[in-house]
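Deliverable D4.2, example record:
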Amino acid sequence: MRPFSPVLPAFIITTMPKKLRWGVLSTAAIGLKKVIPAMQHGEYSTIDAIASRNAAKAREAATALDIPTAYGSYEDLLADPNIDAIYNPLPNQLHVEWTVKAAEAGKHVLCEKPLSLTVAQAESLLAVRAVTGVKIGEAFMIDSHPQWLRLRQLLDEDRIGDIRSVIGFFSYFNADPANIRNQPECGGGALLDIGCYLIHASRYAFRCQPTRVVGLIENDPEMHTDRLTSAMLHFPGGHSVFTCSTQLVPYQRIHFVGTRGRIEIEIPFNAPTASPTRLFIDSSGDLSGGGITTETFPVCDQYTAQGDAFSKAILDGTEIPVPLEEGIGNMRVIEAVFNSARSGQWESL
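Output generated by the structure prediction step:
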């Protein structure tokens, strides 16, 4: 078992880099517990303000996380001239509305996934970006984690030959009707919440859109959100098959299978911040696992990496990790899976 160490450029930083100044829309749990603390350790990002519709909640969060400024409205945050970018972790149905408002205020936007609830909503952001000139990205933090960067490198190096199949699974158990993940009006359900990762990962591997998809969905009879969703995506070079669920034992795994080998990511989506992660490469075809090479990756907070990657792209004037076009492409597949599940037919993209 050997650690993977990315090759870093040979230069010495003699001055502190400029940091992008971030504001956070809402006191959503993912922001308070994961994203904000991680970005505060970033090399290129600072969290300078947080907003809530409840001023007391904003002040409480700001005090707990040592954020300089708290606002009692989202509008006040967007009006702050000292904020360069907005992190938008609002409930899914509010993503587009407040991404538009942030962009119109001249702020770059990192929006939580899913970017929108429909393709039409996502596409409306293209015109907003064109008028405002800001960057709008979707928060697929996995793209910035070393294990996924290594996957990209291995695929580009043809380590497993031509990729022909992606097989993924992602689940957790949450049957609380009060949770927004179980409320259809809030964009709840398995496909939008976690299936989006499996679709993104498949598109990431094949480097293109699927040509058609077929979906099978089981809805919760009381909450009316999809609690068990499976899909097959047909790409020009192969297939992707996945299952996601909000009412199964927590589990996640993904395999990438090629003509000469396969790659497996052990914890692909919720990479731990307290222990290393592992990637398995098997080019032997030995079913007992005797030919597997294991690569380990040092502890990494993927939210820190995501914040720095987005911030550095803005500071350097380069493309952000998951630009708007990628988010729209993912939403096209999500919508097609929903449509296929309703019709019982293959859905073309």
